[in-house]
Amino acid sequence: MFSGIVEEAATIVAVERNDSNVNLTVRCSFADELHIDQSVAHNGVCLTVVDIRPDGTYVVTAIHETLERSNIGDLRPGDLINLERSMVMNGRLDGHIVQGHVDTTAVCTGIEEADGSRYFAFRYDVSPEMAAKGYMTVEKGSVTVNGVSLTVCDSTRDSFRVAIIPYTFEHTNFRTIEQGTKVNIEFDIIGKYLARMMELKD
Known about the structure:
Elements: E1 8-18, E2 21-27, E3 39-42, E4 45-52, E5 57-62, H1 64-69, E6 80-85, E7 104-114, E8 117-123, H2 128-132, E9 142-145, E10 148-153, E11 159-164, H3 166-171, E12 182-187, H4 189-201
């Protein structure tokens, strides 16, 4: 379980394909604090640490389904990736409840400057069936973009905008996002549960 508060925008050191899987080697400041089997969110995708190396890097493996649903398969050495370790249960939930189970990807359709902050617009593919199951955004609701917990504005059937303050821009890989960039999206789990309850009620 995560909160969507990114700890670090780390660097991808290597990307290695192993059959249908991809092994990512990541360099970050807290690599020596990790342990094997620990869960870490990478651009919002929960991946398990499988190796820790003495050079300040560690390795995670993404399976085929993860590659199909996310932008993990697009990563290359030198890319920045947002990292968050799992929540400590006696701490504050500063973002919102994030599972690390990415639902789909979205594409940045525009960036607008706004008095020092920036508005990022995103569009995603959605079917009526998936929207009915809670795979959607709502005005002032929460959404996770590349692992960052954000508040939705200008929500439509298949698009939304988020406001990014300077701190978030500088400390996450939002600073590398431009028009056409593909990002990972996780919709709010509470909305999915409510949609499922309504479905069963019928």
